[in-house]
Amino acid sequence: MEEAYLELGKKILNEGIEKSDRTGTGTKSIFGYQMRFDLQQGFPLLTTKRVPFSLIKSELLWFIKGNTNIKYLLENNNHIWDEWAFERYVKSEEYHGPDMTDFGRRCLSDADFNEIYQKEIAEFCQKIISDSNFSKKYGELGNIYGAQWRRWHTSTGETIDQLKQVIDMIKTVPDSRRLIVSAWNPEDIPNMALPPCHTMFQFYVSDGKLSCQLYQRSGDVFLGVPFNIASYALLTHLVAHETGLEVGEFVHTLGDAHLYSNHYDQMKCQLSRDVRDMPTIKLNPERNSIFDFEMADIILQNYNPHKGIKAPIAV
């Protein structure tokens, strides 16, 4: 299964079009690509580099709970959304520290600045955890995934719990072609720290198995896409568990699939490695609802990857 992802990385390196991007980093990009993962064959967590499953678990549970504040993530030692919250803070009138303009790229080329940045963001994260008022103001990322999945705002002032609704439909009308959850709400885009990259997903039931297809408008292939593959595969496992189904396929459809220019060497390193056996997932059988799951209820088994490959994040 992992070969599908590696083929994508190879294709972008060899055939990708050079494009500018929002972050100013530069990318190689292709448009319109699809990968398929048979979840009966194992759990698609990459083995050609270590991918931290605990971060995938806590982020997905964060989405499922409808949470949009990074405090929950920080309490679970998950820092993958820190930069977006921090960027909002340093652009506010309340921030009076060192100049953090373009901190993402400056950290890579200026060791002295990186030391200052690490100190500032560590203090920021600690304050999010310890100061509830500060957390409410600067830990919030706007109506991102969790809010759209669980509290989609309607024109009449009501909310729709899309995730609960689609699970109920899987149980009652499994052949429906409307088993869809959308995170792309045009009205809320301006107020989000990062507009949804994985914009919508659809479930499909056949032969007692649950499959899921994700449409992702934008995919950071080296850093982000491995997380997205594992996250939606895990979501499929959780929903299948609640609805009494086996898992089927995870189908990953990408719009703009890109490698950042400062990830090319890392991708080449990953492509040079051999693929190992896929791990498996074990879920707590005592949990009957996806909304009751906690970190300890999801166990990754037999994961034996190559060592991780570090790469900078583009903010």
Automatic annotation (TrEMBL):
This is Thymidylate synthase. Residues 4-315 form the Thymidylate synthase/dCMP hydroxymethylase domain. HAMAP family: Thymidy_synth_bact (MF_00008). Keywords: Cytoplasm, Methyltransferase, Nucleotide biosynthesis, Transferase. Signal peptide: none annotated. It comes from Vagococcus vulneris. (6R)-5,10-methylene-5,6,7,8-tetrahydrofolate binds at D220, A314. Belongs to the thymidylate synthase family. Bacterial-type ThyA subfamily. One of its GO terms (biological process) is dTMP biosynthetic process. DUMP binds at R22, R177, R178, R217, S218, G219, D220, N228, H258, L259, Y260. It is found in: Cytoplasm. GO terms for molecular function: thymidylate synthase activity. The active site is at C197, C197 (nucleophile). NCBIfam families: PRK01827.1-2 (NF002496), thym_sym (TIGR03284). SUPFAM superfamilies: Thymidylate synthase/dCMP hydroxymethylase. PROSITE patterns: THYMIDYLATE_SYNTHASE. Catalyzes the reductive methylation of 2'-deoxyuridine-5'-monophosphate (dUMP) to 2'-deoxythymidine-5'-monophosphate (dTMP) while utilizing 5,10-methylenetetrahydrofolate (mTHF) as the methyl donor and reductant in the reaction, yielding dihydrofolate (DHF) as a by-product. This enzymatic reaction provides an intracellular de novo source of dTMP, an essential precursor for DNA biosynthesis. Pathway: Pyrimidine metabolism; dTTP biosynthesis.
